[in-house]
């Protein structure tokens, strides 16, 4: 009895309204630089925006979205989406498969394998601008290392970044080189958590390494695969720097992805309203991907029980 | 002891794939490092050695490229700006994450769930989407082309709040009950009890923000125009823009701007790898 009275009247610092002051700085930054701008982007996308004097902007409703469907601006929205899909699909498929293979190769604990894992992860932490410049030099049509390598197997020098057929593959090669260390480490983390008993059982039952991997290891890695696929598709959908440095969206519009076009339309061509509409589309696709991940991991969890 | 060693040795001998695995791994590792090694070799080559095909791999160790590149741009300024911006971002992120993480984990207040949901929703908004509205807002607020616009937006991190909340959740409630009896308020609880225990998480959060600031390009490139306040990667890009054919000089500049990050990585590898399991990737592009 006396105890409850005591707790009721005692000073409860952890229930104090100071908590609001604690969350205030972070929430204020999120409000000013993320939440309000997100809403604002939707607003700007309904205007024909005058970038010199925003007061002279005119409300045009959904015209900027209609312009996408009608292909008013060069390059057309359809071609931008096609280029984006080319990049995102290649990054997700190749990135996931290659980093799975690398993780299987490297996940055991040994000094040599650990050093190789570090080498892979090192490329991931290097700055995008600096290493994109490195690869501009790698892909140099006359003196680059890329041509020296393909020359060994008798292929004639290629103008990697200015050729319609090789520009996007070149960016994909660079991006895989830069990103794969991260996804490999994620899979290495996954492989060290899964049960070895099942693998041993499979081996005793006479399964070869390939079948053991496909039927025993891979199913257990599913949550990691989902994570890597979603993170990979979101980050490659938004990729910008390597396109800016390596090709500038060219040749023609061959490497003009959604992320790159958003920059080009807003900051070079000053079609701010249209660019904001592109940003809204990009935002909605990102939300869909994140929700898909939530749904997928939730269904995984419920099927486990 | 000897028996386990014996078993291990036998097991090693029994695995013929072991050597193959290591050889393949080393070849792949070298392939990944090749572009970086080649950049360094180019940076110490003479111009005439660079312009030949197939490339001459062994360089002439000509270090003059470094002094030429160093004098061609205000690198010291870029480095200083980067360190200033990164330092402020890290300090802000640690402060906001500690405060919010502590409140969300330990304190009870009305609307806690809803506010935390907002934090999680913020994570879903990608930076690309924010470029246009923030550019317009920055101009209106007079923040365009300032240090502030390069610092403030990155001063709170969902990753940081999330990680510190997770950590504070693992602390036993008795810890705070004892402090409560001594009459400690929430500020003292956070800074003299909880924060000192959270050092490993704080290093991870700080490192994540530091790397983000060091590698930042799109944001400072669009939000500033003066060389005097721009950071290193923007400087590197404009150096390339002014003389894109001086490959030996460019490779020297890439080397001296990237070596600090590589050294940081080599010293703090453990944290980087732990960060790979974090919620938010470390890259801001």
Structure description:
The complex is a heterodimer of chains A (305) and B (285). With 305 residues, chain A is mainly alpha-helical. Chain A has helices at 2-9, 18-44, 63-70, 77-106, 111-125, 128-138, 145-152, 167-193, 196-204, 209-220, 222-237, 241-246, 258-268, 272-304, and strands at residues 47-48, 58-59. Chain A has a domain at 85-269 and 281-304: MetI-like (MetI-like fold, Orthogonal Bundle). Chain A has 14 helices and 2 strands, in the order ααββαααααααααααα. A two-stranded antiparallel ribbon of chain A has the order 1-2. Chain B is mainly α. Chain B has 2 domains: 2-68, no CATH class; 74-275, MetI-like fold, CATH 1.10.3720.10. Chain B has helices spanning 2-14, 17-43, 47-50, 64-71, 75-106, 112-123, 127-140, 147-151, 158-169, 173-181, 186-197, 199-215, 218-223, 232-242, 247-267, 269-275. The longest helix of chain B is centred in the first third of the chain and has 32 residues, at 75-106. Chain B starts with a helix and ends in a 10-residue tail after the last helix. Residues 278-285 of chain B have low confidence and may be disordered. Chains A and B meet through helix 2, helix 4, helix 5, helix 6 and helix 7 of A and helix 2, helix 5, helix 6, helix 7 and helix 11 of B. Chain A: One of its GO terms (biological process) is transmembrane transport. Chain A: InterPro entries: ABC_transporter_permease, MetI-like, MetI-like_sf.
């Amino acid at each position: 009895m006396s105890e409850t009275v005591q707790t009721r009247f005692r000073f409860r610092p952890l229930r104090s309204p100071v908590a609001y002051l604690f969350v205030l700085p972070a929430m204020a930054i999120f409000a000013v630089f993320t939440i309000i701008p997100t809403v604002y982007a939707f607003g700007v996308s309904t205007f024909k925006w005058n970038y010199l004097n925003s007061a002279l902007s005119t409300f045009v409703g959904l015209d900027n979205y209609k312009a996408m469907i009608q292909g008013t601006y060069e390059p057309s929205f359809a071609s931008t989406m096609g280029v984006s899909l080319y990049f995102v699909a290649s990054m997700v498929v190749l990135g996931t498969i290659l980093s799975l293979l690398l993780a299987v190769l490297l996940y055991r604990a040994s000094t040599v394998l650990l050093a190789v894992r570090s080498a892979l992860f090192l490329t991931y932490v290097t700055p995008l601008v600096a290493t994109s410049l490195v690869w501009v030099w790698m892909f140099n049509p006359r003196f680059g290392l890329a041509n020296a390598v393909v020359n060994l197997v008798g292929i004639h020098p290629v103008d990697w970044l200015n050729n319609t057929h090789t520009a996007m593959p070149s960016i994909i090669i660079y991006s895989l080189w830069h990103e794969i260390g991260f996804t490999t480490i994620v899979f290495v983390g996954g492989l060290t958590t899964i049960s070895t008993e099942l693998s041993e059982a499979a081996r005793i039952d006479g399964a070869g390494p390939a079948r053991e991997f496909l039927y025993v290891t891979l199913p257990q890695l599913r949550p990691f695969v989902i994570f890597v696929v979603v993170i990979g598709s979101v980050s490659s959908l938004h990729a910008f720097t390597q396109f800016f440095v390596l090709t500038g969206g060219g040749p023609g519009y061959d490497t003009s992805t959604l992320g790159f076009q958003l920059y080009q339309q807003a900051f070079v061509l000053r079609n701010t309203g249209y660019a904001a509409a592109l940003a809204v589309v990009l935002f909605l696709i990102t939300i869909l991907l994140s929700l898909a991940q939530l749904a997928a991991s939730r269904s995984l969890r419920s099927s486990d029980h | 002891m000897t028996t386990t060693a014996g078993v291990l040795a036998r097991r090693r001998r029994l695995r013929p794939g072991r050597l193959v695995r290591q050889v393949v791994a080393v070849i792949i590792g070298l392939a990944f490092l090749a572009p970086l090694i080649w950049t360094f070799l180019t940076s110490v080559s003479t111009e005439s050695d660079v312009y030949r095909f197939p490339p001459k791999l062994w360089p002439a160790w000509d270090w003059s490229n470094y002094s030429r590149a160093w004098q061609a741009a205000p690198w010291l300024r870029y480095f200083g700006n980067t360190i200033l911006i990164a330092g402020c971002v890290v300090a802000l992120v640690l402060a906001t994450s500690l405060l919010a993480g502590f409140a969300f984990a330990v304190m009870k207040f009305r609307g806690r769930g809803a506010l935390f949901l907002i934090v999680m929703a913020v994570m879903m908004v990608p930076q690309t989407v924010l470029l246009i509205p923030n550019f317009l807002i920055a101009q209106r607020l007079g923040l365009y082309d300032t240090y502030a616009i390069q610092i403030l937006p990155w001063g709170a991190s969902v990753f940081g709040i999330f990680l510190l909340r997770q950590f504070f959740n693992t602390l036993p409630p008795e810890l705070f009950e004892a402090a409560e009896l001594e009459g400690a308020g929430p500020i003292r609880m956070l800074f003299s009890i909880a924060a000192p225990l959270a050092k490993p998480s704080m290093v991870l959060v700080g490192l994540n923000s530091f790397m983000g600031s060091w590698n930042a390009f799109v944001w400072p490139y669009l939000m500033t125009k003066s060389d005097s306040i721009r950071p290193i990667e923007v400087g590197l890009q404009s150096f390339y823009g002014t003389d894109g054919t001086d490959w030996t000089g460019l490779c020297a500049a890439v080397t001296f701007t990237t070596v600090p990050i590589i050294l940081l990585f080599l010293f703090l590898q453990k944290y980087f790898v732990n960060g790979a399991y974090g919620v938010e990737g470390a890259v801001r592009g």
